Amino acid sequence: METAVATRTDEQLLEDIRARDRTAMEELYDRYAAVLFGVARRMDPAGEAAEKLLTATMLRLWRDAARYDRSKGRFFTYIMGIMRELSIEQGMGNAPAIKGFGLHDRAAGLDPELHKVYVLRCEQGLDDEAVATLLTIPIEQVKERMRRAMKQLVNFAQR
Amino acid sequence: MNTHELIGSGTLELYALGLLSAEESRAIEAEAVRSSELRVEIDAIQAALNNAAVEAALPPPARSKSIVMGAINALEQRRISEARPPVMHQASKVSDYARWLNDPAIARPENADALFYVPIDQRDGEATAVLWLTLGAPEETHTDEIEKFLILEGTCDIHMAGEVHRLVPGSYLSIPLHTPHTVKVTSEVPCKILLQRIAA
Predict the structure, then answer these.
(1) What residues of A are in contact with residue B99 (Cβ under 8 Å)?
(2) Which residues of chain A from 3 to 22 reach within 8 Å of chain B, CB to CB?
(3) pLDDT tens readout for residues A62-89
(4) With contacts defined as CB-CB under 8 Å, which chain A residues touch B51?
(5) Cross-chain Cβ contact A35/B64 below 8 Å
C-alpha cells in the first residue's frame, strides 16, 4: 500500500506489535521481507525452503517481538538471529548466516590454510576439536584460523 | 578477553555470524557492556553484514505475505476466543483489556442507536461487553449481579445513592446490589464503556 502517512520507526513497530497491532506487523513485513528473502534464498537457492523460512521468521517475530533487547545490537541483527536459529532447525546447513550474507561465495578467495579450516568447520559442520584432530594441529590454531577466515570474509563484505 | 584482544582478532566476526558458542557469545556481550569501543566495533561489523544483505534483497512471492498475515489472524482469533477478560477492580486499567478491545469487530457503526452494545465474552456468570451511550441510560437497580464500568472514551456522570460520580477515560466504578443508578453522558462524543456484569 503506497500512502503518504508517516511511517513508524522499527521501535514503534515493535511496540505496536507487542500490543498485538496487526497493521504494525504488515508494515514490518513490507519493510523487511525482500531483504530476508534475499538472505534465505542464498541459503537455499531452490527457493522452497527459503519461502518457508521467511514466513516462519515473520511468525516468530510476531510472537517474540518483546524479546528484542536494543542493547544487544541492531534490530536487523536480531531478526537475522531468529532466521539463523530457524534455518538450523529446518536443516538448512551448518553455517547458514555465512551463506545468507553471501560470504560463502567469497570463501574461495581465502588463503588456502584458512580455506581448509573453513570448509571443514562451516561446510562439513565439524567442531573445532574434530577439525584439530583431522588436521593434526592444536585446537587453538583451528580457532585462530577460523577467526582470520571470518575477518577476511567480513572484510570482503565491507569493501 | 579484553576489548583490544577482541578487536581485529576475528572473534567479533564469528560472534556476528552466530558461530560462537553461547558461552563465548555471553562473554563478548558482557565485555561490550563495559566497553563502548567494543560496541562501536561490533556495530560496524553488523552494519557491514546488514548492507551485504540489503544489497541482495529479492522480493518474495506475493502469496508469502498472505500466508504470514493469515496465520497471524488465525492465531489472534484463537487467542481472543480462548482468553477470558479479567474481572474488573479498582486498579483495572484500559490496557488490561487491550487484546479484546483491539479486535476490529468491536466497533460502533455510524448510524448506531443511542445505546449500542457489543458483547465480548459471556460465561460462568461473567459477561463483558463494550457499550456506547450517546445520551445516557435510564434508572436501573440490580438484584443479582454487580455491574462494573471502565470508561474508555468520552465522559459521563453516574448518579447513585445521592452522589454523582464524574467519570472520565480510565475511571472505574462498581455498582452495589440494590442501588438505583442512572447514567448521563457529558461529552460531545458517545461515551464508550467497558461493561461487566458479574453474578452475585
Answers:
(1) 20
(2) 19-22
(3) 988 877 877 777 888 889 888 988 888 8
(4) 157
(5) no
Per-residue pLDDT of chain B (200 residues; tens, 9 = 90+): 688 888 888 889 888 888 888 888 899 989 998 999 999 999 988 888 888 888 889 999 999 999 999 999 988 887 777 788 999 999 999 999 998 898 888 888 888 888 888 888 887 788 999 999 999 999 999 988 999 999 999 999 999 989 999 999 999 999 999 999 999 999 999 999 999 999 98
Q: Which residues of A touch B75 (CB under 8 A)?
A: 62
- Rounded to whole angstroms, what are the CA distances from A22 to A5, A75, A101, A117, B73? 17, 19, 29, 45, 8
Q: In whole angstroms, give the CA distance from residue A71 to residue A8.
A: 20
Cβ-Cβ contacts under 8 Å between A and B: the total is 132
Residue B196, CB half-sphere, CA atoms under 13 Å: how many? 24
- Cα separation, A148 vs A116, whole angstroms: 12
Q: Within an 8 Å CB–CB cutoff, is residue A86 touching chain B?
A: no
Q: Which amino acid is at B94?
A: V
Q: Which residues pair with B158 in a beta bridge?
A: B165, B183
Return the SS3 of B156. strand
Element housing B33 (H / E):
helix B22-34
Cβ of B72 and A19 within 8 Å?
no
CB contact under 8 A, B17 and A150: yes
Measured distance CA(B147)–CA(B141) in Å, rounded:
10
pTM for this one?
A: 0.63
Assess contact for A146 and B14: CB atoms under 8 A: yes
